[in-house]
Amino acid sequence: MIRRLLVAPLVAAVLPSLSLAAQRPDSLPLKTTRSVDFTTSEGTWMSLDVSPDGQTIVFELLGDLYTMPVTGGEAKRITAGPAFDSQPRYSPDGKTIVFLSDRSGSENVWLCDAEGSNPRALTKGDKNLYASPEWTPDGQYVVASKTSMPIGSVYEIWLYHKDGGSGVSLTKDDKGPAPGPPGRGTQNNALGAAFGPDGRYLWYARHRGGFGYNLDLPEWELAIYDRRTGKVFPQTDLYGSAMRPVLSPDGRWLVYATRYDAETGLRLRNLSSGDERWLVYPVQRDDQESRFTRDLLPGSSFTPDSRALVVSYGGKIWRVDVPSGQAAPIPFTVKVHQDLGPLVRFETRVDTGDVLVKQIRDASPSPDGRRLAFSALDKLYVMDLPAGTPRRVTSDGVHEQVPAWSPDGQWIAYVTWTDQGGYVQKIRADGRAKGQRLTPDPAFYDHPVWSPDGQRIVVIKGPRGPRVAEHFGPGYELDWLPAAGGAPTRITPIAGGGRPQFSRDTSRIYLYEANEGLVSVRYDGTDRRVHIKVTGFTPNFAPNPEPFPADEILIAPDSGRVLATSSNYVYLVTLPLVGATPPAINVADTAAAPFPVHRLTRVGGDFIGWAPDGKTVYWSVGRSFFRYSPTLGDSLAKAKARADSIRADSLKQATKEKPDSAGKARVDSLAKLPAYEGERIDVAIRVSRDVPRGSVVLRGARIVSMKGDELIEKGDLVVTDNRIGCVAATCAAPAGARVIDVAGKTIIPGLIDIHAHPWPTWGIHETEVWKYLANLAWGVTTTRDPQTATTDVLTYADQVETGDLLGPRIYHTGPGVFGAFLEENWTSLDDVRNTLKRYSEFYHTHTIKQYMAGNRKQRQWVIMAAKELGLMPTIEGGLDFKMNQTVQLDGYPGSEHAFPIMPLYSDAVQLAAQSGITYTPTLLVSYGGPFSENYFYERYDIHDNPKIRRFIPHEEIDQRAERRPWFRENQYVFPRIAASAAAVLRAGGNVGMGCHGQLDGLGCHWELWAMTGGGMTPREALRVGTMDGAYGIGMDKDLGSLEPGKLADLIVLDANPLEDIHNTEKIRYVMKNGRLYEGETLDEIWPRSRPLPRMWWWDQEPKGVK
């Protein structure tokens, strides 16, 4: 145990250094350390424009702007640096280029001179995204699509004067009928603004609401906006949608994109007659099934004489004659130079030795503050504070969770759980007697709490069966029972799982219900009152955003304050008496709250509570317990406020041309003052790790080791304990080893799923996790979950390591780091450091998931803080190819989900390969088109598969297999995505396998098979599913290949996957960590002979159903 008072300086520095003073406040903070250099004659998603004199083309490539003669040649870079510049358009006089750039830290509309000099921002702000800027014909204004809803991607077209101003939205009131996915809002998206010679009419593409998945067409239509009347008029009605209008300078022609079958083409309309024809087909695949952050198609341009369209597709730039449609390439070469941030990748060794438990749950101090009760590994522990040794209070084999002290501190109530149900129990706190069962019948129980007089226990109760089946309702109620034991009495039905609580008014029971707030009732359920509603961050992706309700609210014993958690932080909130309408307090901006609100934590907190006397609050993070005195905190806060006032005056003096030495000394002394953060107590529980003992020889198999191209056609593999000892044509058997004949079989490494979501039940934990079993049965021996939503995984992962649960290795990022996008108002690198310390110091994760956590500057803060703290961040791809490329430039080592732009050409392939990022396309949930899981469900009937039925509950099977959407085969995009992934792999890049939890176990084989659908060879696909995945999570020293010294994770197959990748499913044995299991049953056959215990779902079939 470590007990310490956290100390942080009030003032980090006194005088800025010259370098910091000289640094532009709007510049990107990340320092580059690497570079990528190559020459290409291809480009991916190149928006371009032709100068008004018809002599020059400006275009974008990998975040820089280039110019070249309209006839082609070597391109000249006119913007450079770490910023991502895109979508250039010439002004009508040809002297100025408008473009998009994130050089200020967030994307804005910028102007520069035609040769790239004199860049200046046209728009300001740090929470917006833009698309498709365009000039009005008179050159006085710029229009651009703008969204402040990065996830919803509902763009409005804004009008800005070239000389400045905040601009005005032209289309915010456009809510007329338009195509789009249901349930995504009523506001219309507006993209691709275009003008002909008449500046009155603005053409654009519109679409109802935000983005969606597995979409039906049409999704977009063309419309014109009358700048004189403000009215909008639809102009198309096509099944394939209509997008990206381009008008000829003479006003005669309109070109737009539409989908025909599975490809995108350009249509040509004569604006005089209305006649249409195909101009060119196919072209670049549109982005209408994504988030269209770079518009729906790259920008193109008519030549000034209106006789040709200059457009990019197929990785090239083309001159297309109008109206004939004859296309001729405009050759170009680009010498690419990109400066990159350091690759933040760390090697991580698999833990050995005893397991240091990573999480204590529901920790609660005794009424006298001298002892701490908590659950660890779902067992009940008590320890003396502050530095006692944790000891188990029971020796039972059931789960024991949510301890609650009796008011006299003599007893601890808790709940138990198995697949047969649970009970409320109590035990003497000294552990000198066996636990007493208080409830007569099994049910689901949670959050017991003693009444202040110690005579009753109030608890949440729910039905056993649904909870076993992982359902969270309905049927929950608030009950009370005598503290001595007896049948529960219902107080009131409840909607969910809030925690019962008491104040000094012992006649009332308080409960938090998120939709209403903190409520209270009497013991008979009457006189229901709402006391306070606490909310936090307002999401920016909902059609009608409302702030998130607090995660939890607990009333103080004196009823004058509440403790609340929101966005991982703990807040102390004043609770005033205001009459019939309860106060609503938003803690996202504490300064704007109507009553005092204090944030108590810098890194966050879970499992909050009040001491009975109300003088102390507490919480836990990981295996650390914290106590905080609000009274002391309040007094120090007042002292800090006074110090801040002095500091402000002193800094004014200290930064004068001749610094005042007295003022500087006063600031220096303030820097040494501590900021009160409470008492931290680290709890250390060590438990033996499950490691088998003995040696086994797998003899005579074909061994695909994944050590380079190694293939042993007939060989032996020796495992001693949990490590591989020999892989060769012939291996000597260690003394006493068991020899298993696997002649004719093929051995491959265990599969590594680095984008898994095997989420088990949260709160009261399962005793067996079917998702873990299914993955292991299909040979997935390692998973990395990049977004666990809760911290329950800390306990589940430890239970796998100790052998209490059977499953693959469970690695994870912990809950996603949503940052400024969803949760936390980051304003500095220090803010981000504090957030990430939650993961490095308390959750002890090696990787994190940066989940679209803000603008470019904030995302760079994440990578900088991660490097300092030794964390490997991966990112949510977010259907945003622009962001996908910026994280490669910034040194992120992982990217989750497919790049929605397809195909990738040599520029994007080289950047992805040379950046060092691990690209995990998760083909089962393909971005940019229908999910490929639908493809496999259409072709493989899993419903009656006996292995599926053994490892997956029937209801889960029905949800996946009974009724599904259908898509014609040519609509699937996974072969296109896989082809790009193969290109990255062959260029020296790294590609990971991510199965996304769509169908635990078998789904990973579908993911591998889908990889070969894009041209990967079976060996390449196996590399993706093994060695590349291990490299992607930094564990390739221990995992990913069959080599001496590595951990013994492998699959024995009945058929050769190098001949047919579908043979990966033909599993005879699975070995994980040296234990060998039958593939069909998960019965252990080495070193123990032990059948898999019966699972609860095996007995759920109606009579007579087989």
Written overview of the protein:
By secondary structure, the chain is an alpha+beta fold. The chain is built from 18 helices and 71 strands. Strands 55, 56, 57, 58, 59, 68, 69, 70 and 71 form a nine-stranded mixed sheet that branches. The chain has a five-stranded antiparallel sheet with strand order 1-53-52-51-50. Helix 8 crosses helix 9. The longest helix has 25 residues, at 630-654. The chain is globular, with a radius of gyration of 31 Å. Residues 1-25 and 666-674 have low confidence and may be disordered.
Shape: globular
- Low-pLDDT runs of 5+ residues are 1-25, 666-674
CATH class annotation of the domain at 34-340: Mainly Beta
Strand elements, count: 71
CATH superfamily of the domain at 34-340: TolB, C-terminal domain
Strand fraction: 25-35%
The CATH topology assignment of the domain at 34-340 is Neuraminidase
Work out the helicity level: 10-25%
Which oligomeric form is depicted?
single chain
Mean pLDDT: 92
Q: Per CATH, which architecture of the domain at 34-340?
A: 6 Propeller
End-to-end distance: 54 Å
